[in-house]
Design a protein that fits this description.
Order of helices and strands: HHHHHHEEEEEEEHEEHHHH
Strand content: 5-15%
Distance between the termini: 26 Å
Strand order of the largest sheet: 2-3-7-6
Largest sheet: 4 strands, antiparallel
Number of strands: 9
Helix content: 40-55%
Radius of gyration: 21 Å
Length: 379
Amino acid sequence: MNFQLTEEHLAVQQAARDFANNELLPGVIERDTEQKFPKEQVKKMGELGFMGMMVDTRYNGGGMDTISYVLAMEEISKIDASASVCMSVNNSLVCWGLEKFGTEEQKEKYLKRLATGEVIGAFCLSEPEAGSDATSQRTTAEDKGDYYLLNGTKNWITNGNSASIYIVIAQTDITKKHKGINALIVDKGMPGFVVGKKEDKMGIRGSDTHSLMFTDVKVPKANRIGDDGFGFTFAMTTLNGGRIGIASQALGIAAGAYELAVKYSKERKAFGKALAEHQAIQFKLADMATKIDAARLLVHQAAWLKDQKKDFVKAAAMAKLYASQIAQDVTTEAVQIHGGYGYVKEFHVERLMRDAKITQIYEGTTEIQKMVISRELLK
């Protein structure tokens, strides 16, 4: 086992850290309060190569490994989880799925622009009646010969209004159940496609989460990803990799809160000495650091397995399960260490605590991760 990061890894990590502190930190509280999408910051992320990190260079990507990706995700998530979830969806769900399963025409038309951040992508699976149960797709894609007629509603879509390219999962043949589902590429602006209301969320408030409505949208057959009926397999396979991105986001949220707690505990005095000199605080910090290191090892293991083209399904689910749990624990303790100051916006930790919760819900809830892990264990 080699736990040493390469020079390239360290350079990516430092670049992400510098970007987060210099570009994302200024205004992050205001963006959270005003639910403002970090448009300019995301554009710069694209220019720096953070929006298509793992995409092959021939499609304008960074050609980097998954370890590089999770290192960057952690650093950016320490400061702004709203920016990092945009990055995660574009990298893990949209770019990866298109590169892995798309046609050359689809890659030329869509992937090249997505990889540079020229445009942003969205992954559209969840519906009002289909969250964890992804087989219950009510959105339909009726086969009309050379095109599909798309009808339905998608909920809780990250990058819902900011995206230009949407991968939509829809049911074509209900008699085939999950084998009758397709994945279609939909362009913003197609007639009949409407972006619905923006959700007023507890956390990741800078991320624009919308419902989407499709009414008789004509989607060319050339925009189908994979063979007819491949959509459900596409979605589940893509989500397996996406869990690594969200695990690294949860890790970053926890690590960011921990770093703030350490800094505050050294500066704040109580009963004549710094908080960090009180054993009660020292024990909290020790528990927080241990949980973060354990989560980081799980995240890096899942990323390494993916890079080695080994089975990473169980490892990714474990990483997301544990990292999202400790993100809740660590951010809550960070608020506690800050005391009353932790409850106000200017000290950042209350925002990180609110941001942490969603990591236990999206791209597979905690309960779904346990189902995935147990299924893998009992094979």
